[in-house]
Amino acid sequence: MPRNPLDVVAVVHRRVCTFEFGIVVELFGLPRPEFDAWYRFRVAGVERGPMPATGGVSVEVPYTLKALDTAGTIVIPGWGSTETEVPEALVRTLRRAHEDGARLASVCSGAFVLAAAGLLNGRRAATHWKYADDLARRFPDVEFDADVLYVDDGNVITSAGSAAGIDMCLHLVRRDFGSATANQVARRLVVPPHREGGQQQFVETPVAPSDEHALSAVLEAVRSSLDQDHTVEGMAKLAGMSLRSFARRFRATTGSTPHRWLQAERARRAQLLLETTELSMEAVAERAGFSDAQILRLHFKRIVGTTPSRYRSGFRERVDG
């Protein structure tokens, strides 16, 4: 019987990262009566009972690793220390779940657990920048990327530290329920509805408040008129900056180039239209700001990972199922 991705189990161990665990609980464990369907959430560990967490608090663990035998999504919300050995029982259970089709995700140092289980070999993976060099030395078969918020590799998803876990979890909500639902959850959390996984974890040079305000106005103006023809030159002019200064400030603020950001925003708009309307592909392309359906398909497949038609049919199957 196929595993249901809406059946989520968070795996915790001693000294579990409290903030990262809280993110997972908030996104998957909090009741959402405003939606017709939501996740079933459980907390499991090698041991049951109170588990010490960072910050002098404890987490109640009611389930053993047996819960992973049926879970469709397994999340490792950080690991107390990358020097703490991953129990062999957990390694075996994760490998078995992965082979059986479970979706695995990690936040921050949780990537250490997936790497120790051999589930990241040959893959690109995200983790907190402070762990990246150490993990790269210990697991040379994994391509750790310290410059991104999260990496979606299909059935294995990894994220950088702390708040990047929110971005990754919202990304999973978007995969499971669509953009409209993910946006509604983000609004309740008072966080941006979407930050592209490839954005940088941090920037070295702070952006001046005046520049940041100007860029925010530009981003909102472009988002509200994606069907219009926007150029980087026009965006720079709207911000009152030279082209070079605008490109530099844009990258420092968003971690992306203006062109890449614009294409990603248009792809997200197309996602929403595919989920909520019966518009033809040509009409979706026009409203999202792509010149035609072929260009929509090209960028959509690169950004979302599938074609617009497959995304629409897959979304309907998830909703109807």
Task: Describe the protein's architecture and organization.
The chain is α/β, with parallel strands linked by helices. The protein has helices at about 20-30, 90-100, 110-115, 130-140, 165-175, 180-190, 210-225, 230-240, 245-255, 260-275, 280-290, 295-305, 310-320, and strands at about 5-10, 40-45, 50, 60, 75, 105, 125, 145, 150, 155-160. The strands form 3 sheets. Strands 2-1-5-6-10-9 form a 6-stranded mixed beta sheet, sandwiched between helices. A hairpin with a 3-residue loop joins strand 9 (about 150) and strand 10. The radius of gyration is 20 Å and the shape is globular. Residues about 195-210 have low confidence and may be disordered.
Structural features:
13 helices, two-stranded antiparallel sheet
End-to-end Cα distance, whole Å, is 15 Å
Largest sheet: 6 strands, mixed
Give me the oligomer status. single chain
What fraction strand? 5-15%
Order of helices and strands: EHEEEEHEHEHEEEHHHHHHHHH
Count of alpha/pi helices: 13
Poorly predicted sequence stretches spanning 5 or more consecutive residues: 197-210
Describe the global form: globular
Name the structural class. Answer: alpha/beta
Rg result: 20 Å
Which strand order does the major sheet show?
2-1-5-6-10-9
Q: Summed up, what is this model?
A:
47% of the residues lie in helices and 12% in strands. By secondary structure, the protein is α/β, with parallel strands linked by helices.
